[in-house]
Design a protein that fits this description.
With 301 residues, this protein is an alpha+beta fold. It contains 11 helices and 10 strands. About 2% of the residues have low confidence.
């Protein structure tokens, strides 16, 4: 039941892919960076990831986790998140995405009410950076590795083993989750709602000329409030996010179409080819034409 990474979202940045099946809503993904793009997105499910090789930066809302091999992360429900490689070569991540009902079965029992619901609704818990240096975190890491092996081998009873390991993980995360700050609860909710609206607007209009004023107007806020919201929620600026999203879309088009590179640049909001090429190299480490050639050669092999 191991699948390659593939993130597809709607205009709100919500992931469209169904994780697992209705009968067993758990999915395991093999993520290979930098090949697999993991842009900003969100989903209702809980996500865990174990870094097997290399190093990666995982953004979970306003928090950044720098992880190396042997470390893991947890992303809470409905939290905007993304990932980018930090090391030379490749970074391999074993990711697990599961719906809460894979653990609790329903919402009318003690598992949901005592462990899952408080964790998922804890606005102070966007995620966790898990290292083997802390005993309880090492338990979580070991459980992620164990359930991944079960998913890979699919021996009789593997679903029961995966569910057991997920229960262990949720129990530990629930026990060690940060205290909820009631003072900032409403502010965090408001910022999250605003950022999703503004990201929706950017993703729908990235091919046009956009200013900070245009983005701020979506939520009827000032440009300074728009900047604050972006920094507080996803640790970047509106224009930096716009540029990053444009480059991601350009990379997708380079792989999926035979359009001229200049046409792709223009369709992604870049008016100057030299600026596009320079920006692309800064992010992907090669020119757009080299990126397309490498992808074509990989497909042939």
């Amino acid at each position: 039941m191991i699948s390659p990474c593939s993130v597809q979202t709607n205009l709100q940045g919500e992931e469209l892919r169904e994780h697992g099946t209705h009968l067993f809503p758990v999915a395991c993904y093999l993520d290979i960076l930098p090949g697999d793009e993991i842009p900003w997105h969100w989903h209702n499910e809980l996500e865990f990831g174990l870094v097997v090789s290399g190093a990666v930066m995982v953004d979970a809302g306003s928090v950044k986790y720098h992880l190396k091999a042997g470390e893991a992360f947890f992303i809470n429900s409905n939290i905007l998140h993304s990932a980018s490689i930090l090391s030379e070569g490749i970074c391999e991540i074993h990711s697990v995405v599961c719906h809460p009902r894979a653990i609790s079965g329903s919402t009318d029992n003690i598992v949901w009410q005592k462990y899952l619901k408080p964790l998922m609704e804890n606005q102070a818990c966007q995620g966790f950076h898990l290292t083997p240096d802390t005993a309880w975190q090492k338990q979580v890491i070991d459980s992620i590795a164990s359930l991944w092996r079960s998913a890979e081998q699919e021996e009789y009873g593997f679903e029961l083993h995966i569910r057991n390991e997920l229960s262990v993980i949720i129990g530990l995360l629930s026990e060690h989750q940060p205290a909820v700050s009631r003072k900032s609860f409403g502010k965090v909710q408001r910022d999250n709602a605003r950022i999703k609206e503004m990201l929706t607007y950017i993703q729908a209009n990235y091919d046009k000329e956009l200013t900070i004023e245009d983005i701020a107007a979506v939520c009827a806020v000032s440009t300074s409030e728009c900047m604050r919201c972006f920094r507080a929620t996803i640790s970047t600026t509106p224009i930096a996010y716009l540029k990053s999203y444009r480059l991601q879309q350009a990379a997708i088009k380079l792989q999926a179409t035979n359009d001229k590179i200049s046409a792709i640049a223009e369709s992604c909001g870049f008016q100057e080819m030299s600026y596009f090429a320079k920006s692309f190299r800064e992010v992907y480490g090669c020119t757009p034409s080299e990126y397309r050639k490498a992808d074509t050669e990989a497909g042939i092999s």
